[in-house]
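Morning!

This is the sequence you dropped in the shared folder:
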Amino acid sequence: MTEYLDKKNNFISVYFFIGITIFFSFLLEIFLSNMFDLSVYLPLTLMVLIYWNMALPKNIGLIWAMIFGFSLDINQEVLLGSHVLLFLFISYLTQRYFHRLRALYTIQQSLFVAIVVLIYQIFLISFLGEFKESIVIELISLTLISALIWPIIFGILRQLRIKFIQSN
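The structure's back. Tokens below.
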């Protein structure tokens, strides 16, 4: 009986820890989007969701994608449900192919994240319906920045997962 309770408490603490890291990335994304006047934003929440879907696909669930998708929709004043649909689809694909994604080198994962971010941003632009010439430059630069910071996000979250989750 105590083994069952230990597994249940461990699951709750893992789920809570995942939620805290996604919430922190959500706040950082909002802070950065308010700091810079850009048409597209650095999708930190998406990248953290990708990490957790690759690292612990059975523990992440899709509820986090829905919660933070709706939160981003409300914060960025876009069509309600657009982030949710994109987050759910990307989370599903990442969970579906997590074995293959884990086996990739960091540079290959960065390329995967860059492609996902590019597609994500293009869909968001189409949901907004606003297309300017400056958006292309922002889109390319933020895609490259996402690919460059992926190893940092991956490393930080991996160290946190090893330190806090696997020590329980």
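Headline: The radius of gyration is 16 Å.

More detail when I'm at my desk.
O.
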